[in-house]
């Protein structure tokens, strides 16, 4: 089961419960059983799921809830909190500081994506102005050094390794020393992986760790390993001081539930996830937005951060000014889609939108806010000119209308200062939110009153946006 399916199953269970006329013990139990089944199918460890179920039952005491309380919302909040708790070990991992030398050692089984992830991690920090370096202490797998060398060269990151030396400890120490002298602030040591947990692997890891004294040991785990995740993560933790986890291959048919088990086994947080083979297919992992997405609640704050990353800084004030005036044009949609295409995986999703392609964008009409100008004969000409079906062009225009409608409701939104994209979400109040939320979702929350209450409970509208972003679909 891929994560999206897990999220879908949980949302369905919640939906079914809210469809029940009365939310009694039976409705709650049915819902929890459904969620338990979904989590187990996604390879979350049995004990974790059972604990979660018990905790929710303890928190949600239906008898104590006075009539008028929105039981569905309270149950949903309890599930949200429990899932967050599963993924949050309660203490943050060591975070390297730019400009101050840190040594980070990567460990994991062979094929987990460790070497690829080392470079992704280095590249991520390099883009933020760090001075990373890579050390290949994998002398077990022939070709490991070549792979690291190739990746590092592509990303223009200094690297160290040897074809001759067979002692990983010696290479690791030499590499770390060299890069300390070169004032690198993030020295990354890649260690060998083996097919399975072997005594020799753990002993070697322990020795490398003892010799290089890493500030952080990162455990890299393939998200598709299923129920084995807990034991595997625990075995690593028992040999070296694992401080954080990176889960790879979240893009494939991953049973992402393993991530939850790894957190429980290592009592360390997941800090990044790998979402593809490419260097930039790597995302910071944040618990709340992740769980929001899992429960089908969207991830507005993450979306805004992404936009912040891809919309060129000098275009942001102008774009927001236009949007706040209610001028959402086809050109804006076109330019933003172009920016979104730079986002990588999300870009792939957008490029799947029916009829979306560069040739298809109706040039000359891009700056109008009046889609009616797009009459039948023009639509036919566009379809012919781009080799698409008329239906494709119509669907693209429908998508534009949908987005334009959302943005027209945002008219008058206070524009944040230059570069302060996240201020946009802070400026959203319950009024704005209620206009953007799909009517059925608003109803579930308990209308405007429920929304205001929920926003108060959540502490800030930013959290709220994190939970319920996404717009109407
Ligand atoms: N789809 C996808 N593939 C990935 C991801 N991360 C790594 N891979 C692929 O997984 C395969 C194994 O990755 P490596 O980095 O060679 O694995 P490793 O764990 O370093 O292997 P050893 O060095 O032998 O321990 C490669 O084909 C990578 O391209 C990811 O996030 N998504």
TrEMBL record:
One of its GO terms (cellular component) is signal recognition particle, endoplasmic reticulum targeting. It comes from Rhododendron griersonianum. Keywords: Cytoplasm, Endoplasmic reticulum, GTP-binding, Hydrolase, Nucleotide-binding, Ribonucleoprotein, RNA-binding, Signal recognition particle. One of its GO terms (molecular function) is GTP binding. It is found in: Cytoplasm; Endoplasmic reticulum. It catalyses: GTP + H2O = GDP + phosphate + H(+). Component of a signal recognition particle (SRP) complex that consists of a 7SL RNA molecule of 300 nucleotides and six protein subunits: SRP72, SRP68, SRP54, SRP19, SRP14 and SRP9. Coiled coil: none annotated. The NG domain, also named G domain, is a special guanosine triphosphatase (GTPase) domain, which binds GTP and forms a guanosine 5'-triphosphate (GTP)-dependent complex with a homologous NG domain in the SRP receptor subunit SRPRA. The two NG domains undergo cooperative rearrangements upon their assembly, which culminate in the reciprocal activation of the GTPase activity of one another. SRP receptor compaction upon binding with cargo-loaded SRP and GTPase rearrangement drive SRP-mediated cotranslational protein translocation into the ER. InterPro entries: AAA+_ATPase, P-loop_NTPase, Signal_recog_part_SRP54_M_sf, Signal_recog_particl_SRP54_hlx, Signal_recog_particle_SRP54_M, SRP/SRP_N, SRP54, SRP54_euk. Residues 269-282 form the SRP54-type proteins GTP-binding domain. One of its GO terms (biological process) is SRP-dependent cotranslational protein targeting to membrane, translocation. HAMAP family: SRP54 (MF_00306). Component of the signal recognition particle (SRP) complex, a ribonucleoprotein complex that mediates the cotranslational targeting of secretory and membrane proteins to the endoplasmic reticulum (ER). As part of the SRP complex, associates with the SRP receptor (SR) component SRPRA to target secretory proteins to the endoplasmic reticulum membrane. Binds to the signal sequence of presecretory proteins when they emerge from the ribosomes. Displays basal GTPase activity, and stimulates reciprocal GTPase activation of the SR subunit SRPRA. Its main location: cytoplasm. It comes from the Eukaryota. Belongs to the GTP-binding SRP family. SRP54 subfamily. This is Signal recognition particle 54 kDa protein. The keyword Lipid biosynthesis does not apply. The keyword Cytoplasm applies.
